[in-house]
């Protein structure tokens, strides 16, 4: 079964919500309408705080501030080095407030408090430091023209950027997008998910403390169809960067097309396969696969939700996977003994349970789990299905919950075909020691990141993004900044050049 | 006024044989599934040149299927970049062997100058193919500097099946602008040429096969935007669309991509490009440059320098010389080597340009020269210059896509920059000055994808080209163009006992 789902004895930190208003042009302000919305604690379903609800009018004010800050303000006119210094300062301030920020994401989204403190929030620091160090290394090129001309490219900041971020990794996602855009010299309006507005507002406060000029970073909390749509349709936003579901990704791209043809980048869902070959160490593979799907309660775009195990080790794998899942502790995310907190809200909770029912109805076998957990909040047992057929909805749709589909395969060809049999293409895992299998399979699976003998091996220097309907554009790495830059070519005739 | 403006160069002209009029799918010339054909007309007279197979959704489905098979199982992506480059070089050679025929097709189809087709447009196609042929074996990913004990590298993989939707103003250049980098990347493709100019694309398809490019790699489906073009944009098995054309249709392309399979798109759209001429410019050189910038290719070019800003110190002299110079600009049969400007491409464009000229007059601009249609047959318009143009007039804001110059005065550099940027477009801009600081400041301040200093139309295979703002996104030309047809894949493995990190 899952396990605890109860309140064991542990020390709860004090929950303080300091920032609940919109952050526009360096000030915390109420929404123009005066409206607020609730954000709830998924451990209990209860309201944590009332947050200002931004709508089109607030987005207009924020974009105006960002436009002024870009067209006439200091930020793009500083050197990359100076921008980097200020970004380093913000990183330092985050480091001084790790505990408070970690509390916010746990109480807003049900993420593990201990992991927030040692992985998520420090990860944001690392992202800022990486891009701070890149800000003074943005290079265009001098060209090799075929006539007597000098040509060079300039990489210019694109202007006012809209960032629309999801709720599953509120801090990581915030800095995934904000850091390279700041380094590039852009100004921006961030629309956090309505499920997770709290940490974004705290970061806005720290940004001001760090010396980021007013108007450069604006945060408008609110809902997708109102505030989010307003950003995507805004005639004065130059670019939108979106991470979220494919359904909403469509709306983002359509709105961009209908308004000012702003470019968009989309990081969408996934149904990532992990292919485990006969030569894999079974214990290592079981551990990797379990973490791949149950980590962060399965609420991660690259969740390894389809596990393909070669027939030679399948039975052993299945037995050990079930045992391991039974040891996976579900409970209060503030409890350091817990592995898995609650799903983010009622809607997601019900959706996952629905998929579990689908799986049973479609004829898959529940190996372990399958039920909700506890009487309060949105806890679900870690669940493993076997006897899954490729065309079942649990094998094709992104569930976004702790539900593994375990399947068997015989040959490399079959594994590759099945791995690619999805409209998504975000990540994939390969577990093998064989060099040739590793090389062949990594080139054959159509996904944006291939993890060999590891999973979730993210790195700030490693580009991340989708193939197919998992989207386009890359986050992380030096090239993430390209999303926030435009290439300008400058050409002049030359006379008397001693070389061409 | 402008001059010849007669239908064609006398009775000596004989319509050449039009060899290729069917769709090119999977290495074969085939009729459309429906059997329908459409007419393509000669803008010198409005008469029909040929009937061409009209592709629709079913034909696009067949073409995409062929391209998908060629990509997923065929030779093209499995060849080395070097081998792809060799075949592209062969293709370039074949184009050079047929320059006359190809140039003639574009002149008849689009009213383009035959002389320019032979000396520039068609040879340029061979140049582009060769540039990308030489790049095909130099597509690099990177090894990374990971912060944990892991090895990481990026692979630049061909994105798959690409849809190219190309416009009618430079049918050959546009074909190779898109096809060349996509071929180099290892992709397969379906090209939808503009309905106004279906002919040269089919000839190129024939030469591609002759060059040894495998069946299904390049497919050409002629037809209309609303049918064949839309089918390509909405197709669930096309991985990428590359579009050059109007802003209005660009929107439809992006929307269709969003509603279907979220395929990435790149758009190269319209422009209202400014040329800023400072007091220290050589007036004769400036007049010549500005004139060519707007009247070249009858103004049917996305980067046409349609807004000319002249600093007040030289304004009066410039106006006088511009008017005189325009009178020497010969409008007539594009097959005639002494003509500078052929007819507008079709009746619709012809009427649209004349409408804008009327708008200009009504809004209160002064007609300095031209302004009238020319001759009694075909779609010829006199080279036209308006002065006393205000920034908010339609002729200053909208892309006219015809030989109509808006000439305006400015005082200070700040004013020039502000006016240059007062447009929803951002494709190109020209700056005429000898002053280093003015050149640097203005080139950085004008929000456009290409800045030409003391030159114009200085395209180059190695110089990235594309828009800011509503002129689109994505770049053609240069090594970066190949990126549009590649995807980045990261591959990460843990390391043990590495002596360095």
Automatic annotation (TrEMBL), chain A:
Cited InterPro entries: Ald_DH/histidinol_DH (IPR016161), Ald_DH_C (IPR016163), Ald_DH_CS_CYS (IPR016160), Ald_DH_CS_GLU (IPR029510), Ald_DH_N (IPR016162), Aldehyde_DH_dom (IPR015590)
Highest taxon listed in the record's lineage: Eukaryota
Gene Ontology MF annotations: aldehyde dehydrogenase [NAD(P)+] activity
PANTHER family associated with the record: ALDEHYDE DEHYDROGENASE-RELATED
Protein name per UniProt: Aldehyde dehydrogenase 1
Assembly and interaction partners: Homotetramer.
Positions annotated as active site in the UniProt record: 267
Gene3D superfamilies (UniProt xref): Aldehyde Dehydrogenase, Chain A, domain 1, Aldehyde Dehydrogenase, Chain A, domain 2
Reactions accelerated catalytically: octanal + NADP(+) + H2O = octanoate + NADPH + 2 H(+)
Keyword tags: NAD, Oxidoreductase
Family per similarity comment: Belongs to the aldehyde dehydrogenase family.
Pfam family, one: Aldedh
Aldehyde dehydrogenase domain mapped to chain residues: 29-490
UniProtKB/TrEMBL annotation, chain B:
PROSITE patterns: ALDEHYDE_DEHYDR_CYS, ALDEHYDE_DEHYDR_GLU
Keyword NAD: yes
Active site: 268
Keywords on record: NAD, Oxidoreductase
Catalyses which reaction(s): octanal + NADP(+) + H2O = octanoate + NADPH + 2 H(+)
Keyword set includes Oxidoreductase: yes
Single GO term (MF): aldehyde dehydrogenase [NAD(P)+] activity
SUPFAM superfamilies in the record: ALDH-like
Pfam families cross-referenced by the UniProt entry: Aldedh
Every Aldehyde dehydrogenase domain range: 29-491
Subunit structure: Homotetramer.
Family of the protein in this entry: Belongs to the aldehyde dehydrogenase family.
Official protein name in the record: Aldehyde dehydrogenase 1
Species this chain originates from: Phoenix dactylifera
Gene: LOC103720725
């Amino acid at each position: 079964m899952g396990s605890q789902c109860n309140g064991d004895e542990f020390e709860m930190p004090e929950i303080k919500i300091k920032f609940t208003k919109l952050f526009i042009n360096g000030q915390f302000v109420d929404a123009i309408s005066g409206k607020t919305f609730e954000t709830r604690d998924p451990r209990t379903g209860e309201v944590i705080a009332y947050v200002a609800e931004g709508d089109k009018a607030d987005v207009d004010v924020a974009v105006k501030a960002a436009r002024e800050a870009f067209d006439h303000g200091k930020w793009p006119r500083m050197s990359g080095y100076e921008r980097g210094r200020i970004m380093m300062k913000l990183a330092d301030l985050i480091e001084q407030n790790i505990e408070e920020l970690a509390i916010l994401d746990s109480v807003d989204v049900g993420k593990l408090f201990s992991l927030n403190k040692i992985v998520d929030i420090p990860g944001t620091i690392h992202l800022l430091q990486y891009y701070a160090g890149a800000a003074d290394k943005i290079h265009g090129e001098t060209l090799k023209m075929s006539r007597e001309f000098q040509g060079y490219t300039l990489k210019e900041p694109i202007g006012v950027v809209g960032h629309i971020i999801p709720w599953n990794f509120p801090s990581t996602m915030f800095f995934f997008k904000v850091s390279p855009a700041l380094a590039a010299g852009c100004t921006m309006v961030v629309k956090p998910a309505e499920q997770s507005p709290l940490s974004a507002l705290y970061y806005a406060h720290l940004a001001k403390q760090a010396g980021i000029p007013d108007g450069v970073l604006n945060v408008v909390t609110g809902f997708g169809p109102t505030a989010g749509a307003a950003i995507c349709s805004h005639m004065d936003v130059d670019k939108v960067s979106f991470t979220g579901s494919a359904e909403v990704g469509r709306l983002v791209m359509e709105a961009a097309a209908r308004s000012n043809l702003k470019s968009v980048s989309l990081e969408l869902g996934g149904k990532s396969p992990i292919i485990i070959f006969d030569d894999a160490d079974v214990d290592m593979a079981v551990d990797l696969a379990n973490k791949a799907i149950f980590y962060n309660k399965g609420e991660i775009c690259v969740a390894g939700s389809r596990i393909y195990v070669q027939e030679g080790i399948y039975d052993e794998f299945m037995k050990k996977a079930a045992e391991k899942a039974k040891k996976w502790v579900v409970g209060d995310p503030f409890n350091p003994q817990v592995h898995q907190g609650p799903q983010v809200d009622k809607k997601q909770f019900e959706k996952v349970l629905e998929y579990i029912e689908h799986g049973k109805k479609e004829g898959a076998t529940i190996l372990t789990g399958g039920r909700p957990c506890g009487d309060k909040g949105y806890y679900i047992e870690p669940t493993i299905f076997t006897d899954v057929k490729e065309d079942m909805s649990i094998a094709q749709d992104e569930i976004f919950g702790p539900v593994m589909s375990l399947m068997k395969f015989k040959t490399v060809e079959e594994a590759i075909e099945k791995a690619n049999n999805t409209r998504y293409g975000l990540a994939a895992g390969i577990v093998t020691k064989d060099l040739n299998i590793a090389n062949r399979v990594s080139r054959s699976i159509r996904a944006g990141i291939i993890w060999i003998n590891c999973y979730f091996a993210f790195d700030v220097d490693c580009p991340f993004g989708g193939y197919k309907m998992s989207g386009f554009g890359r986050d992380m790495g030096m090239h993430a900044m390209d999303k926030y830059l435009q290439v300008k070519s400058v050409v002049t005739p030359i006379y008397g050049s001693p070389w061409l | 006024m402008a001059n010849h403006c007669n239908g064609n160069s006398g009775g000596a002209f004989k319509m050449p044989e039009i060899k290729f009029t069917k769709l090119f799918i999977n290495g074969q010339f085939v009729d459309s599934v429906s059997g329908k054909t459409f007419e393509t007309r000669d803008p010198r007279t409005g008469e029909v040149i040929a009937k061409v197979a009209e592709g629709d959704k079913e034909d696009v489905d067949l073409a995409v299927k062929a391209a998908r098979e060629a990509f997923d199982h065929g030779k093209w992506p499995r060849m080395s970049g070097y081998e792809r480059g060799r075949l592209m070089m062969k293709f370039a050679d074949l184009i050079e062997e047929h320059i006359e025929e190809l140039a003639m097709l574009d002149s008849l189809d689009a009213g383009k100058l035959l002389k320019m087709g032979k000396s520039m447009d068609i040879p340029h196609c061979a140049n582009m193919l060769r540039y990308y042929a030489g790049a095909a074996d130099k597509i690099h990913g990177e090894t990374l500097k990971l912060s944990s004990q892991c090895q990481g590298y990026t692979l630049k993989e061909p994105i798959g099946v690409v849809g190219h939707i190309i416009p009618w103003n430079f049918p050959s250049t546009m074909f190779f602008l898109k096809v060349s980098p996509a071929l180099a990347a290892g992709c397969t493709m379906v090209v939808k040429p503009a309905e106004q100019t279906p002919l040269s694309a089919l000839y190129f398809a024939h030469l591609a096969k002759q060059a040894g490019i495998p069946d299904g790699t390049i497919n050409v489906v002629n037809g209309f935007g609303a049918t064949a073009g839309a089918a390509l944009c909405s197709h669930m098995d096309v991985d990428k669309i590359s579009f050059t054309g109007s802003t209005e249709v660009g929107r439809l392309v992006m929307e269709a991509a969003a509603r279907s399979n979220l395929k990435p798109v790149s758009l190269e759209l319209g422009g209202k490009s400014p040329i800023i001429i400072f007091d220290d410019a050589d007036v004769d050189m400036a007049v010549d440059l500005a004139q060519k910038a707007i009247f070249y290719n009858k103004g049917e070019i996305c980067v046409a320098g349609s807004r000319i800003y002249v600093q007040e110190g030289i304004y009066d002299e410039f106006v006088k010389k511009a008017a005189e110079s325009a009178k020497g600009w010969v409008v007539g049969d594009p097959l005639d080597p002494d003509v500078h400007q052929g007819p507008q491409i079709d009746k619709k464009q012809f009427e649209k340009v004349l409408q804008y000229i009327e708008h200009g007059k009504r809004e209160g601009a002064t007609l300095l020269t031209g302004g009238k249609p020319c001759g009694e047959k075909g779609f010829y318009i006199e080279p036209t210059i308006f002065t006393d143009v205000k920034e908010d007039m339609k002729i200053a804001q909208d892309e006219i896509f015809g030989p109509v110059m808006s000439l305006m005065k400015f005082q200070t550099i700040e004013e020039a920059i502000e006016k240059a940027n007062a447009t929803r477009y951002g494709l190109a801009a020209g700056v005429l000055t000898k002053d280093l600081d003015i050149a640097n400041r203005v080139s950085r301040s004008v929000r456009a994808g290409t800045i030409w200093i003391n030159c114009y139309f200085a395209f180059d295979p190695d110089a990235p080209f594309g828009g800011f703002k509503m002129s689109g996104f994505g770049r053609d030309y240069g090594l970066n163009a190949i990126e549009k047809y590649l995807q980045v894949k990261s591959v990460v493995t843990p390391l043990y006992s590495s002596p360095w990190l």
